[in-house]
Amino acid sequence: MTAQSAHPEPPDLAALQRRLAAFAAARNWQPYHTPKNLVAALSVEASELVEIFQWLTPEESARVMADPDTAHRVRDEVADVLAYLLQLCEVLGIDPLAALAAKIDRNEERFPAPDGP
Amino acid sequence: MTAQSAHPEPPDLAALQRRLAAFAAARNWQPYHTPKNLVAALSVEASELVEIFQWLTPEESARVMADPDTAHRVRDEVADVLAYLLQLCEVLGIDPLAALAAKIDRNEERFPAPDGP
Amino acid sequence: MTAQSAHPEPPDLAALQRRLAAFAAARNWQPYHTPKNLVAALSVEASELVEIFQWLTPEESARVMADPDTAHRVRDEVADVLAYLLQLCEVLGIDPLAALAAKIDRNEERFPAPDGP
Amino acid sequence: MTAQSAHPEPPDLAALQRRLAAFAAARNWQPYHTPKNLVAALSVEASELVEIFQWLTPEESARVMADPDTAHRVRDEVADVLAYLLQLCEVLGIDPLAALAAKIDRNEERFPAPDGP
């Protein structure tokens, strides 16, 4: 069996959420994973993304992925934000995709498109 | 056709990302959606989650979903964080699921489980 | 006695810190003012400042004080950040002015000025 | 003249604000110091404070200054938050002490003390 066949399909969100839960459980990290602590960690990771962009002009910010080191850093922080968001959803019993679908529905009513239906 | 058959399956991340992109395009919001602005907005939404929890004890924080109004607020902010994260990934060409899978792989090497394989 | 004579001098930092401590004590808020909660509140207020600027261009951001309502909002959030910073310093026994003076000293060594002494 | 006599009094806020402005000017950093960038940097530093506390219990958070290394880190981040707040006030023409005094005045009306005057 090759490494490739071990990952025959792209990961889905639910599978990643299960991997994260197993990862925390194997290290006995659940006592630290209160909702309060997880939202703090989420906001810290979001700020680490901000830190990459804080002194850039808008134009420079649009080119961050052209530099391989910065691109890696951005992907790494995006992963951290998503990881804590999924772990928060896990401990609170929230379905993030359903929450986002509902929010887009509400926003479509709240901000009608200029030429919308 | 019933409302239920119109949404026969739960939304997937890629479909929600396309809805968000279409939503922004229909309102001509793309000029505002520089990576720099989107990470700022992401961090602001993460802080709105923190605001819900800031004065709670760890125990109270574990019970936030018991109150319907607070539960709605938490789901709403989770949706906002995910929305800006997906829009950031869209403008930067990042696959959030691949980024998270790669990060979990790295973390499994970095933090070996006590009884891990 | 006139209003002016009631405030004969501009407030100093230590006097404001004492007013904040008395304000919290009179309302029995000290149990909520753990260092952990105060840093969370500080970061939430900092994000409320970011929210004012998140969709502005750099040029627009330089003109925020020209609009009286926005100017009031900015001053209000600046005050909130400073209030939580002073309350954090109070509970941790930190002298914020000494901490900043020491930091500037270190930064002057770390980042020598191009034409510096 | 001894080093001690060179600093005969504790630094005041206005003097530190002038030192920060001179420091940035000597390094030609002013173009980066737009209000938008400074509020982003402020929020990043506030999050670095949160990071120190994110996994601590409320009780552990009250004891952070007992460890010299952590105490140094906390003072350092407090200094960074104050530095960016003062630089923001400098570029926007805000008097932070007056803003805070006005805010406490408003809060005293908004949240009357239980046994207040």
Automatic annotation (TrEMBL), chains A, B, C, D:
<dbReference type="GO" id="GO:0009143">
    <property type="term" value="P:nucleoside triphosphate catabolic process"/>
</dbReference>
<protein>
    <submittedName>
        <fullName>Nucleotide pyrophosphohydrolase</fullName>
    </submittedName>
</protein>
<keyword id="KW-0378">Hydrolase</keyword>
<dbReference type="GO" id="GO:0047429">
    <property type="term" value="F:nucleoside triphosphate diphosphatase activity"/>
</dbReference>
<dbReference type="InterPro" id="IPR025984">
    <property type="entry name" value="DCTPP"/>
</dbReference>
<dbReference type="InterPro" id="IPR052555">
    <property type="entry name" value="dCTP_Pyrophosphatase"/>
</dbReference>
<dbReference type="Pfam" id="PF12643">
    <property type="entry name" value="MazG-like"/>
</dbReference>
